[in-house]
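4.2 Preliminary Data

To establish feasibility before requesting continued support, the project team ran the inverse folding procedure on a target of 349 residues. The structure was first converted into the token representation described in Section 3, and no sequence information of any kind was made available to the design step. The complete token record follows.
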């Protein structure tokens, strides 16, 4: 049985969170001399001399409306990478607990585990890049607190079948962190719609991919109110800066344009997915629900170096077990994709 109080580190349950100046004062006032800010102003523009809202109230309300969840079910992080790190710190006791991930997958789960001195359990994805459910559940130990599943998965691009995720959610008493960084490029529905069913589900999304805001650093975690309250308790108080909150609000007014961009990227992805296998250098393009393609080539290092010589940088994933001979290529603009195609064609000759 899932029991959040038992799962969370005792020091996290016990500790008192930092109380900011703006937490302690509620009401209206016109002179703010409570936070040691510079009241003369800022050199960058209005408002930036003031600390931002530590609870990101306005931003969460808008996101809640778009995602169909309550604001209390949303945590905002300095990128989803911050949410990943805080999840470790919330439930994993350094030197004692473990987490399970499914390589080949996003590298930060392992980095965060190592940073937090959390043992890593690895279960390789199947040859079809699916989660081997029985193997995962057999590998779970009493000290396993987190399972990370990435869907659509980076770097393979495919979505994990829903029935597999559901079996893990039902069979595991720790937190299942479902990383949906690339969900906007996929036709499969987000698991945010199923939060009420699974008290151990945490869904991660980000503004870095479809929203085109990687430079702002804004990630989202969706979960039960209880889990979100704990993440909020342990986060740095002002983790989302004022500029990010303002810019994100501006972007969120333009959901229609987001749709256009996503459609264009998906169209370009499908064009590349059809065109690349016609080239001699390319062995196979894996199906993708994301904004990148995993491409198996005959000579990964040779092609990688050739593309670099042409000023084109792709990600060499050929040394990752399960991705031998593979490059990961993000979908670019139409012109960039044409340049890429021509450069690979030239290598084939
Ligand atoms: C699967 C996955 N999760 C999370 C992230 C990081 O997202 P953010 O920019 O929000 O930290 C990435 C970035 O590449 C990713 O591929």
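Position-by-position output of the design step:
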């Amino acid at each position: 049985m899932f029991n959040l109080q038992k799962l969370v580190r005792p020091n996290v349950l016990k500790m008192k969170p930092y109380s900011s100046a703006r937490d302690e004062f509620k009401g209206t006032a016109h002179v703010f001399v409570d936070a040691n800010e510079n009241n003369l102003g800022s050199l960058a523009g209005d408002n930036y001399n003031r600390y931002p809202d530590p609870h990101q109230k306005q931003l969460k309300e808008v996101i809640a409306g778009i995602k169909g969840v309550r604001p209390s079910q949303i945590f905002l992080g300095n990128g989803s990478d911050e949410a990943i790190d805080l999840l470790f710190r919330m439930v994993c006791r350094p030197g004692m607990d473990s987490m399970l991930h499914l390589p080949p997958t996003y590298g930060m789960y392992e980095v965060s585990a190592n940073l937090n001195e959390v043992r890593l359990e690895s279960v390789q994805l199947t040859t079809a890049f699916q989660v081997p459910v029985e193997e995962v559940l057999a590998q779970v130990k009493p000290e396993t607190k987190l399972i990370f599943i990435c869907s659509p998965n980076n770097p393979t691009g495919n979505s994990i079948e829903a029935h597999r995720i559901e079996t893990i959610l039902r069979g595991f008493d720790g937190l299942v962190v479902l990383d949906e960084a690339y969900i906007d490029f996929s036709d499969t529905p987000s698991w945010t719609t199923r939060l009420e069913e699974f008290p151990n589900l945490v869904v991660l999304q980000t503004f870095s991919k479809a929203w085109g805001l990687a430079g702002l650093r804004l990630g989202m975690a969706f979960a039960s109110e209880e889990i979100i309250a704990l993440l909020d308790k342990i986060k740095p108080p002002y983790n989302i800066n004022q500029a990010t909150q303002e810019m994100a609000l501006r972007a969120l007014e333009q959901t229609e344009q987001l749709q256009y961009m996503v459609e264009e990227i998906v169209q370009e992805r499908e064009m590349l997915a059809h065109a690349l296998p016609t080239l001699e250098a390319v062995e196979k393009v894996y199906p993708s629900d994301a904004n990148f393609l995993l491409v198996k080539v005959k000579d990964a290092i040779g092609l990688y170096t050739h593309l670099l010589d042409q000023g084109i940088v792709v990600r060499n994933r050929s040394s990752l077990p399960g991705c031998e001979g593979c490059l990961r290529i993000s979908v670019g603009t139409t012109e960039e994709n044409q340049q890429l195609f021509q450069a690979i064609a030239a290598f084939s000759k």
